Amino acid sequence: MNQGKRGARSLYCKWRNTSLVVGAALIGMAVWIVAPSVTAYVDSERSLVSVQEYEALLIASRALSAERGPSNVLMSVEVGADPSAVTRLAEARRATDAALSVVDRTRNLPLAPGIVRSLREALGLARARIDGIAQTPYAERTLAMLTEAIAAMFGIADEIQPTVELAAETLEKRNPALAGSVFTALIVTNLREQAGRLASYVVPSVSRALPLSPTAAGRVDRTQGRIDQLMQTLGVRLDVSDASLRALMGEVRRLFIGRGVRLIEKLTLEGRTGGHYSVAPAGLTGLYVPTLVPLEDLRKAAIHQMVTDIVRSRDIAFIRLIGMAAATVLLLTLLVAVMRRMFLSVLRPLLTAHEMIVGLAEEKPVGRPGFEADTRELNDLFDAIARLEGQLAERRELTERLRVRAETDPLTGLLNRARFLGLGDTRFAAAMGDAARADTTEADTLETRSRISVLYIDLDGFKTVNDTLGHFAGDQLLRDIAVRLSNAVGPESLLARLGGDEFAICTGAPNAAGLEAFARHILLQFNRPIDINGIPIRVGASIGLALMTDGEGKEAGASSFSQLCCNADIALYDAKRGGRNTYRIFGSAVERPMPERRALAG
């Protein structure tokens, strides 16, 4: 009897222990099932706060831009002549200060350290300068005074822009579904800033009734070009399926482009032809500012769309959470009665299958278990996972082949334009970081810092080869040139074919002398003829050079890799204009409008 009790007690203990273990596993499984719904709900709440903080940043950026309007008017009229302008400026400044206070309470989105304090300090100095000009008799004000005050306000807007862009990128990464609305709001805010700058460039000349200087006219032209680019980007980003957004976009085109931009174009033309303007500064503000209203409406609509999407996602996550929690409790209640059998015949195989699937997702295959499941369906599941593993392996191989094809020029095997720009951006950022961290002692000279440079190479005489020997000969010539350039630049440099007969190199260069020596080395590769079907072919090359440097002035270098490439492109066309089969380094090259540069390319 005692032995039977001991046996029963032993079985009971085994059953109890097994039940506790399996129960704990089931509870863990329940948590694992419910956790995604909890996470989705929490993420929705956090995204909602992030969108509100992102909107606060956009409002602060817009407020800084909007403050320039009444500031320009107050600096353009006689002291005390327009009391309403003083009132409008005070209201604009209060709005800016309130917006910066909201930004200062941001917690979810990243802000540059001390950005709000820095903005307030710069804003205080700019406002003091504006107030000083406003208190100066009109006859004693100069065009330079107005231009410098406006430039100070531009600098403040430029200072907050990287923080706004970083917030947009962060919000998009956290919730990719919001990407369209996030960047629509960002683009519209940038449009508002460029629109404000467009008017500010002509206000000093209008207020003084002076002809528009070539510098101001050039800034107007560049800003109009930037507005055109932003409008094109906005057209691509905008959710055309949303009727309200389409209607607001139509208002932007009708009012801002059709009236506002055309007004500035008219004043610019009047300034270029003598300085007799048809609109006074106060009248310019009254006509121009209302055309910017659709931009603000479009920004608000994009933010509203984001909030609506997040609230809908949060509500769905909450309903799913309740449903999953109820279903989990019911499942646990039903499974307690068959816990031991479930663990042995179902749960263990499923957990193993789960481990195998996770291993596949993490590209760490686990392999099929050594035991056989009790049911045919579970065995079929393991067979399906094994087949899936084979298919995923094939897909990874195919993806790698497609990636290489997408990043490589099919004719020469060199990098293509997109890959060259991507890798170049990475190198440029690294070089900028090295320069920022460099020790600024006397021993730290410009030559010892990390530098990169870009060479744009265009073949001279390639069209003649194509026309006389045919495209097959031209293709062979390009492949041979690619081989020579590859041997000349070395593995540490980036070499790409940008298209046609144009190549590009990104390499390290401590100074202009070293870069020019490298260019001469490249030109030597074209001294030897290339044999095409027994015919010796000679082609030359024109090379544009651009060096990343520090310092002041136009020759200082570039603020981005794309600008560095643009500098090299400008130098290239200067080299072609200078006789071809030579090189030019950016700095002495004259920047020309794009149509003229294209004409030089022919």
TrEMBL record:
Entry-linked Pfam families: GGDEF (PF00990)
Record keywords, A-Z: Membrane, Transmembrane, Transmembrane helix
Domain of life per record: Bacteria
SMART domains the UniProt entry points to: GGDEF
Domain GGDEF: 450-588
Entries under PROSITE patterns matching the protein: GGDEF (PS50887)
CDD domains, per the entry: GGDEF (cd01949)
Membrane-spanning ranges: 20-42, 317-338
Membrane listed as a keyword: yes
The protein's name in its UniProt record: GGDEF domain-containing protein
Organism from which the protein derives: Ferranicluibacter rubi
